[in-house]
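Incident review: delayed structure delivery

Summary: a single-chain prediction request sat in the queue longer than the usual turnaround. Root cause was a stuck worker, restarted by the on-call engineer. No data loss occurred. The affected request and its eventual output are reproduced below so the record is complete for anyone auditing the incident later.

Affected input:
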Amino acid sequence: MVRRNRSTVSAVAALGLFICSCGWKSRGDQSVFIDTVLKDKKSFFYIDAKQYPVDNARLPIGVFDSGTGGLTVLEQIVTFDAFNNDTRLYNRNGDGKPDFSHEHFIYLGDQANMPYGNYSRENNVPLLKEHILKDVQFLLGNRYYGDPADEVYKDDKMPVKAIVIACNTATAFGKRDIESFIDRAGLDLKVIGVIDAGVRAALELFQKTEGGSIAVMATVGTVASDGYTEAIRAQIASDGFTGNISVYQQAGLGLAGAIDGSSEYISDKTQPRAEYRGPAFDNADADIERPLLSRYGFDWENNNMLYSGSRDNPQEVQLNSIENYISYHLVSLLEKMRLNNERNPLKVLILGCTHYPYFTHVFEEKLEQLCNYSENGSCVYRKYVSPEIVLIDPASYTAKELYEYLKEKELFGSFTSMAGDFFISVPNRFNSDVQLDSSGNFTYDYKYGRDAGIMQEYVKRVPFSTETITPGTRERLERGVPETFRLINGFDN
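Output delivered after worker restart:
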């Protein structure tokens, strides 16, 4: 009933969508950061753009995300095989050799500031945009710290020859800003995003006269941007679709954070806790509705749900497993369709956050369960879903665009074998302004409440290691992105 798109989930993406910050409370201006990067030679963030080695095939490819979710995009890139490596000609079945076999990658996960999807919710888009530009500055620059405890930075990181935004929220809110920044720096550098990939893959599954529903599961920020819905409508118009295609969005509040182990959304506690920010009773942003508790099908065992009262009559509930987050959001999505009496059954579900493909199998299982869920002898949701729902992971479309860019510019690398350097951001404990919780992470209010335009090193970018990546995350990476995991050598240090 549910399947993944294995052919169309492998081709191109780049949405140059600019989300205007008008309407958001002004709390800073990223132009301060850009001026510092390009003009202030004394700043840690300074880059000498005039000396930047553009059009250099020996440079690595830069990839960034708000956390480790973007590694699902990198996994699609490092395993991508749709061209002949000798002729460079497109061949859907490839030649049995990864197309980026001789490339070097530099990956950054801005773990300290994630999830990016919450910044619009907290009315601080300027800070989100600054984070995104700092991610790009890091990829362009040469500075990093060898360890969170180091006071002196290293300066031997290589710059990059192309940038992949492996984050839907960063694509929606920051791609145009990145391109403006790079243009102002006078650099000829390709920036590739991920939103159009999902849109093209989804619409390839429809005949021009066919009706049906497309759903987008994404972060709060991506949904608020309307990046996917606008791209879908634009593609429908430009390609001449005449069928009745409905579009639904579900903001996956807390899901990306739970996948990356963010303490506001998932915990090792056994009782409800004050710092929880996920779906709950009477949460205006993500309400767990008491009458729907049986439909959610939550797993209450092993502290996967934290609650007070009894299971039959809980007084307070907090989701505490990734599976329960997925259950909640899928039911919420199908409830929208049911309450709208939607006549176009769900045909395609776009996994519009790079964290979600780690758990594609859970999405499949939960959709199957919901299709068969019945009350009083009647299936509640079956009329709202197609016999076969296709799950779309846009990442491979990004890989195809990246390949075509390297081909056009003759920038293919010549490294002996594929290689990578992997970095993650951690709170800078040497900055006295930084506010940390008991787990050593930014407090929620500090993470989302500080102003943009104040030039400080809030974080340090350090290599992946057993100190900076939790055992649970390492296990998820080893299982979910095995080829990328082989490129990560920090765990052996």
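Verification: The mean pLDDT is 91.
Action items: add queue-age alerting; document worker restart procedure.
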